[in-house]
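Input chain follows. Return structure tokens only.
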Amino acid sequence: MTPYAEQPAAPVTYDLPPEALATYQPEQAEPEDFDAFWKQTLTEEAGPPTIEAVPVTTGLSTLDAFDVTLAGFARQPVKAWLTVPAGTRTPLPCVVQFVGYGDGRGDPIDHLLWASAGYAHLVMDARGQGGSTPDLPGRPGADTDGPPVVRGLTDPADYYYRRVFIDAVGAVAAARTLPQVDAERIVLVGGSQGGGIALAAAALTAMASGDGPAVAAVLCDVPFLCHWERAVRLSDRGPYAEVARYCARHRDRAAGAMATLRYFDGVAFATRATAPALFSVALMDRVCPPSTVYAAYNHYAGDKRIAVWEFNDHEGGGSHQTRLQLDFLAEILRRV
């Protein structure tokens, strides 16, 4: 028995009731120039897929690890880890992972699952979030103060996630050049912030490639960066609450901040992503409220499933969700 959407759901105490969540599909509030903004950003800020991968010693015998530097926003260097099963000689399906808010890439020994399951695994650092990649501004004088989620919030061109989303596009492009990777079987994975980045990367990679290859699948757990206008008014912890506090302190900037966030909404990216996707939602999640997850899921343009964790907060399904992901990818990648 799997906890997909057709399973009964428990009552929710602070968000919409379960029956309303299942069909919640709010009207999109994206700017008229959304596509033009991102096409221009891709043209100006996404460089060629350059990558350097240096072998590192981990003390582990079952995988090989590489310290990776790839070209992100404005060709700035972004760090990542690549892990593969030890002795890999032929290209493997590759999981490109994006990390949660406040996390960096960590250490290779933090990332054992996907290589252990037989995949190449590229974990992208989150610039300016405690990892190995600094958050460099895109333009002289751009605002890079404060928590990441509010940096450059008054101007879409300077907003933090413009840089991060292009980093993610660079990570996908770079992964395709690695000799250990089957370029036709790239999977995007992330939870919370990583889930929101995965949605954006799926849509923007397709936009950048035109008729070229799209990603094979998306695994999107309890995603952040979705349905901002509701999220910042409902969530009482985590980065959405940081945006609400910013607007409370800077009353004169609140309208401009919300206008900026419409260019970075996972709901808009979901309508432009078509790879098969497995989402998850936790019905007691106060960091990424369930309605904001369903807003992206119900707008998602590709084949999709959602695992519903009735009694969980932002931890979501944990290892139970991981088992579902492994089964989902085994099914999907057989078709590719």
